[in-house]
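Listing S7. Sequence submitted for prediction.
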Amino acid sequence: MIPPVDFPLVTLASLALALALAPACAKEIQDPRSDRVDFADPKSVTASIFYAAESGRTDHLRALCDPAGENDEDTGRICAMTAASPDWADFRAQFARAHLNGEPRVSGDRAALHFVFGPDATRSETMELVRRDGRWYLSAF
């Protein structure tokens, strides 16, 4: 026969509290999908791409690119995307299930934001953004 172990009540209470709070400690990335872009937040700029692909509402996309015109060709295609674009079906397939995968890494007026995309949302990529006059815009992808 195994003798009973005598745990202090404080230890048991601490363990119960830690287990109860554990789910709250897991950091969840907010994915602010909307056509109302908050240009002060690189997450909002990036997630608005996913919203366009999911909803079919694309009017806001043209405002996402660097107004200085220094964005790459890939982000330029995203900003020009509409439901009438020849690449619309592929755009929807790639971005409709996409989601953010981390907080932005900001260094001065540059930000990098990891996300996953693709038909089954398993491809990893980084969106690069540039800040102009306090507003974030797509730069490279």
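Caption to Listing S7: primary sequence and predicted structure tokens for the chain studied. Residues 42-140 form a domain with the Nuclear Transport Factor 2; Chain: A, fold (CATH 3.10.450.50). The first strand starts at residue 99 and ends at 100.
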